[in-house]
Specification:
Elements (H helix, E strand, L loop, with lengths): L3 E9 L3 H12 L4 E4 L11 E4 L1 H9 L3 H7 L5 E6 L5 E6 L2 H7 L4 E4 H13 L4 E4 L4 E7 L2 E6 L4 E9 L6 H6 L6 E13 L12 E6 L2 E8 L4 E9 L12 H7 L5 H9 L6 E5 L11 E3 L14 H19 L3 H30 L3 H12 L10 H4 L13
Parallel strand pairs: 1-2, 1-10, 2-7, 4-12, 10-16
Antiparallel strand pairs: 3-6, 4-5, 8-9, 9-10, 11-14, 11-15, 12-13, 13-14
Length: about 400
């Protein structure tokens, strides 16, 4: 007979969002059980950008100091033309930025962020962590949510939180909207030793090289020892999507860019690439005693660098509302959706729009450069709505 486990709360997925949700619940004194399908906790990928809205969450949970130990604080975010090599615009992350938002903007390695949250979870007696548990389906059984694992084990819970990413098994139960959609872009990402890249002024910045149908993002991580690179381009959609954007197409896409950009692309890791997907915003994420957070709820294009940041916001909002509503889990989930769905839908929508803006060509690109070229580096009006958000507080956002 398959094992049946009774737990109060279960989080499906032990990535950044799932572990942060567990930690936030534990900080309220609420026991939680985390199921991770991999044999050990870990993150696939390289760098991650953490804006002030994310650092606000990490600070509240008491892990910001650990995160900042290996993180890098870039002086600026600089948008450059990948073709001409000239600067288009920049955001100064200095004293005025920190005064405006209460926190800096940092970049770090995804595995370093996960390790900091994981260590905090391991120190919490209210959290039980389990690996090697692949949840294949979820069902509702009266007032109980049931997670069915591939090995036949079942976890029965009063509240089930799906933090299981883009291909969420929990979403198949709560929303049931099929596969995520292709954006049409392909990403190559990875880190290299900083010494391997040509020296240039502003190497310590977070630099976004943009061009028609492409971009390259570069920034240092691990205290500046490693250099993170993400090369993205619009692929020719021929054959199965998994075969889009092979390395030869990557090189062709960037062949008209500047020498420095081509050098960076030559050094990017070719062993694996990602065909990018997202979903349109959903009106609701919950069903019965199950709900979603992070990429399971609102997978988004990467062009605002807010995927992890929004998962962190979700985590504390959900924990706060579960604590506030006590045993009335459906009421907590309804309040969670009321708070988070409008916010994340806006971020999803603007992430897609930002991709269109940075990948523009022709007259659209000329107008973009003219508009952005005249702005002050300390003008934060375009980021207030995003970075100034305080989860759980009354919204004071300005729509871009």
């Amino acid at each position: 007979m398959s094992a049946r486990h009774r737990v109060e709360r279960v989080v499906v997925g032990g990535g950044i969002g799932g572990l942060t949700a567990a930690l936030a619940l534990a900080r309220h004194g609420l026991p939680v059980h985390v199921l991770e399908q991999a044999p050990e906790f870990g993150e696939i990928g390289a760098g991650v950008q953490l804006a002030p809205n994310a650092l606000r969450v990490l600070d509240r949970l008491g892990v910001l100091g650990d995160v900042l130990t290996s993180a890098v604080r870039p002086p600026k975010a600089v948008m450059m033309s990948a073709v001409t090599g000239e600067q288009i615009t920049a955001i100064d992350f200095g004293e005025e930025f920190r005064a405006a938002y209460g926190h800096p903007y940092v970049v770090t390695h995804r595995s370093d962020l996960l390790a900091a949250v994981l260590d905090a979870c391991r120190a919490e007696p209210a959290i039980t962590l389990e690996t090697g548990r692949s949840v294949r389906a979820v069902r509702q059984d009266g007032d109980t949510a049931v997670a069915e694992c591939a090995d036949g084990a079942e976890y029965r819970a009063d509240a089930l939180i799906g933090a299981d990413g883009l291909w969420s098994a929990v979403r198949a139960h709560t929303v049931g909207d099929g596969d995520p959609a292709y954006i049409g872009d392909v990403a190559y990402r990875g880190t290299i030793p900083t010494a391997a890249i040509s020296d240039r002024a502003g190497k310590e910045d977070m630099t976004w090289w943009i061009g028609p149908g492409l971009h390259l993002i570069q920034y240092p991580v691990r205290g500046g020892e490693l250099f993170n690179q993400v090369a993205v381009f619009t692929a020719a959609a021929h054959g199965p999507a998994e075969e889009w954007g092979q390395p030869d197409e990557l090189d062709r896409a960037f062949e008209a860019t500047s020498d420095y950009v081509r050098e960076g692309v030559r050094l990017v890791d070719r062993d694996r690439h990602w065909v990018l997907r997202d979903r349109p915003p959903a009106a609701a994420w919950s069903r019965g005693r199950a709900t979603l957070l992070g990429d399971a709820a609102h997978p988004m294009a990467q062009y605002l660098a807010q995927g992890a940041c929004q998962a962190l916001e979700d985590a504390v909002a959900l924990a706060d509302l579960l604590a506030a509503h006590g045993p009335d889990v459906p009421a907590a989930f309804a309040a969670y959706e009321a708070e988070r769905v409008p916010r994340t839908a806006k971020v999803q929508t603007w992430a897609r729009r930002m991709g269109e803006i940075v990948h523009a060509d022709g007259v659209t690109a000329l107008l973009r450069d003219a508009l952005l070229g005249g702005r002050d580096e300390r003008d934060f009006q375009y980021t207030d709505w995003l970075y100034g958000h305080r989860t759980g507080a009354a919204p004071t956002e300005r729509t871009p």
